[in-house]
Amino acid sequence: MILTIDVTLDYAAPDGADVLLAVEVAREAAGQRVLSETLDLHGAAAREVLGATGFGHRRWVRAEGALRVDYAARVEVDRPVPDLSALGGDPPRDLDGTATEMLMASRYCPADRFGAFVQAEFPGLGGGALVAAIRAWVHDHLTYTPGSSTGATTALETFVERRGICRDYAHLVVTLARAGGVPARMASVYAPHVEPPDFHAVAEVWLDEAWHLVDATGMAGADEIALVGVGRDAADLAFLTSYGGLEFRTQEVRVAVEGNDGGGSGG
């Protein structure tokens, strides 16, 4: 599958701002290959840095008066979609440093608050069987509701409210998986057939010595996702972080399957 990605960001920066931008597809991610890409910052000064956890890449951009970003890419995705329930988990004592870090509670994923719930709701389950059950539970118990959460909403609040957007679904899957002893992290991605148009977020879990994408919204399969970055939670993965005032003008994210007129947009 080949995805075509087009992103336009347009902001005013009347007093100037340093902006950390994370919109480029990760070149080193397994199961995907960047065939072509362009990034036009319309003359703004920029410097590339590593993404969160050393995966992917971001850019520091100096916005003077305005910030206009045009990003386009063609990405070949050839990622298998295993049966999660058939995958085994690793005992915590056998995890490496990277996976161990993704067992811990984080700013938006208070996994330490959910141990009793996971034990009661998913008794006897572990590894991939637990992750499959968590994905189904989150999908069935949450309602996808644009505007129902903010950038400060945690997985605990989403659990109580039972509604949210892709970010909230991913946070809750990550939180419950960690509470059940499965390393999990959040991934920022592009994917077709997802609404409303925007950047998308999914969970990623460590099973059978590999990371596997999990989207509890049901809108994106692992074989149609282009990874941008990964991190502990949304605190690591904002597509744009401003140090200085920005004023929103327009934003568009368009993702389609090449050759498929019915391709949708990321959301």
Q: How is the secondary structure organized here?
A:
Blueprint: E1 2-21, E2 32-40, E3 45-50, E4 57-77, H1 97-101, H2 115-121, H3 127-141, E5 143-144, H4 155-161, E6 163-164, H5 166-179, E7 184-190, E8 200-207, E9 210-214, E10 226-231, E11 240-243, E12 247-257
Parallel strand pairs: 5-6
Antiparallel strand pairs: 1-4, 1-11, 1-12, 2-4, 3-4, 7-8, 7-10, 8-9
Task: Provide a compact summary of the structure.
The chain has 5 helices and 12 strands.
Summary tags:
C8orf32 fold; disordered C terminus; Immunoglobulin-like; six-stranded antiparallel β-sheet; 267 residues; 5 helices; alpha+beta; 12 strands; four-stranded antiparallel β-sheet; 2 domains
Model description:
With 267 residues, the chain is an alpha+beta fold. It has 2 domains: 2-78 and 239-257, Immunoglobulin-like; 84-236, Roll (C8orf32 fold), CATH 3.10.620. Helix content is 18%, strand content 38%. The chain has 5 helices and 12 strands. It has helices at residues 97-101, 115-121, 127-141, 155-161, 166-179; strands at residues 2-21, 32-40, 45-50, 57-77, 143-144, 163-164, 184-190, 200-207, 210-214, 226-231, 240-243, 247-257. The strands form 3 sheets. Strands 1, 2, 3, 4, 11 and 12 form a 6-stranded antiparallel β-sheet that branches. The protein has a 4-stranded antiparallel β-sheet with strand order 9-8-7-10. β8 (200-207) and β9 (210-214) form a beta hairpin. α3 (127-141) packs antiparallel against α5 and α4 packs across α5 (166-179). Residues 262-267 have low confidence and may be disordered.
